[in-house]
Amino acid sequence: AAAASGGGGAGPCPLLLPLLLLFLPGLAAGPAGMLQPRDTPSRERRELGGLWSFRADLSPRRDAGFAQRWYRQPLRQTGPVIDMPVPASFNDITQDPSLENYIGWVWYEKEVLLPLRWLQGDPAPRVVLRFGSAHYYSIVWVNGVQVVEHEGGHLPFEADISSVVQGSPGSLCRITVALNNTLTPHTLPPGSIQYMTDKSRYPKNYFVQNIKFDFFNYAGIHRPVVLYTTPAAYIDDITVTTTSSDSIAVVQYQVSVVGSTANSLSLSLRDQEGKVVATGDGPVGELKVLSPNLWWPYLMHENPGYLYSLEVKMQAQVDGVLLEDVYTLPVGIRTVHVTSTQFLINGRPFYFHGVNKHEDADIRGKGLDWPLIVKDFNLLRWLGANSFRTSHYPYAEEIMDLCDAYGIVVIDESPGVGIKLPESFGNKSLQHHLAVMEELIRRDKNRPSVVMWSVANEPASELPPAAHYFKTLIAHTKALDPSRPVTFVTDANYALDHGAPYVDVICVNSYFSWYHDPGHLEVIPLQLTAQFENWYKTYQKPIIQSEYGADAVPGLHSDPPVMFTEEYQKAMLREYHAVFDKKRKEYVIGELIWNFADFMTCQGTTRVLGNKKGIFTRQRQPKAAAFVLRDRYWKIANESSCLPPVITSHSPFL
What we know:
The chain is an alpha+beta fold. It contains 11 helices and 33 strands. Helix 7 (427-444) packs parallel to helix 8.
C-alpha cells in the first residue's frame, strides 16, 4: 500500500481523523439539478480563481479550526496564513514537506465584494456559490454561516447563499472552506489511516494514510469556484436524449423549474449557423429535426463533434412580478448501441483507439489548468486518438466540454478505484457509491461524448460480496440513465469475477511481461490471446483492452530491449497490437493505452518520481512509443473510415 505521512510529534489521536468527517451537522448537497453555470440574458457568473488565504490545521487533534471557530472571523485573524492559488492542489505549492504529505483539515478563505444588483430587487435574484470540485470532504461557510457540506473530491456541489448575503450589511462576502483529504474504507476512493504505535521506531501519534491506488492523493480546491445568479424562479434542470434515422432526429427533453409554476416554457433548437431547426413548449416533449447533423467521433466524420444549441426560456409570476430565465444547453444528436461483438455509434461500428489519462501536472497537481488542457487535446488529435477513459475519477467539466466539441469519445468513470478491502463492499460503502453515480450522471447525462459509464476500476471483484455490490450499483446506474451501457474495469480472473455478469462491455486490464512474467515479451501472444478468448467464451460480450503498457524512463535505451527503456515500451506495444489486430476482427472493440502521460504517485521502491508508463512525459514531450501509437491510430482511422477523405495531408495534426 502506498502511504502518506501524517507527520510526527503532535499528530491526531487514534481514529479521530475519520470521525472528523462525520461529527459536524450541516446542510448536505441536495438532489437539485446541476446545470453548468453559464452567462445568459438572465444569469451572471463570476469566477473566484486566484489567491486565497490558506492555513493547515497543525493542532494535535487537527480540530483547532472547529474548536476555535475559525469560520467566525477572517482567517488571517486566527493565526498565520499563506497565499494559495485556486484552482490547484496545495501539496506541491510550497517548500514545506509536511504540507506535501499533509493529512487532515486545511482551511481556505476568499473575501469578495458582490454587485449591489445581486443584493437588491423585489424579488432579489438568487445567488449561488458553486465548487467544481474540492478533495475530499468540504464544509463551506459564508459570512460565518454554514451553507453546505459535501463528500467526494471530483464532482461539483453548490449552495444557494441568497439569504446569507442579502441579509448581511454591506456587500462583503467572506467564503470559508474547511477541507479534509482523509480517506477511509467507505470513501471513494477508499483508504485507511494506520497508526504506528512502536515508539522505538516512530514518533508519538505517528500515522500514515494507506491507499490501494497508484496515483498521488492530491488535495485542495481543484476546479473553479463560481458565484452565479438566477432569477428567483429559475430553470433547475434539463434532461435530453436523442434518437435518429437517416432523415430525422428526435430530441426528447424534460425541464424542471423551481420557485414558481412557469407561466410559459419555450424551447428553440438552433444549428451552428444560428438557424432555428425545431421548437417546442412545456416541461416535457420532443423536438423533431429534419436532415440532422449527427454528432460523430473524431476521425469518423469530416465534421466531428457537431453541437446544436437548445435555448430554454421560462416566464413565471413571483409576487406579482414577471420573471424570465434563459438557459442554453449544447446538444449533440447521436445514438449508442452494444451488440455481442460491436459498439455502435449512430448505427456504425466504433473502435476505441485511445488513452487513459490523469488530471496531473507539475506544481498544480490536479488543479485545472487551461494551457495544459488545450495542449493535451492537441496531442490527442496529433496522436489520432478518438477516445479516453476518465481514469480513475470524473474529469473537470471544462475538459468534458472540449470532448463534446471535438468529438472525443469518453468512458466516464466514477472515483471507485482501490476498492480492495471486504469492508469496502458493505452497505455503507455501497450507499455512498450509489450517491456518487447519481451526482456523476446528473452532471454529465446530456453530454454526447459520454457513451458509457464505468462504475469502478480494478475492484476486488473476486470477493463474494462483489456480486451484490455490482449487481445493485449497475442496476441503479442503468435506472438513472437507460440510454448508455455500463461497465467497470476489471483485472480479476475471468472465472472468478463476480461483477462481470452485470456489465454491458467487458473492460479488462492486463500487463503481460510487466507485472506478470516481467521482461518476457515472448509470453504476450499466448497470454493475451487466451485472455480474450476466455472472457468472450464466458460472457459473449464485446471486449475493450482498457489498460496495457510498460514504464519507460525517457532517454533510457537498450537493444535488445530491457525493462524501463523506451525500446521495451515500444516492443511491448507492438506485441499487444499484433493480437489486437486479430481479435478486433471478431469481438475486441477497443484499446486504451496506459498511460497518456507520466504522472505522480506516492513514493515507493517501484516508483521513481511517479509512474512512467506515459507515452508522453509529465511535461508532454513524446517518448518513442508515442510515434508507434500515432502510426497505428492513424492507420486504423484510415482503414475504418467510410467517409472519404477523413484524413488528408492537409490535416493540422499530421
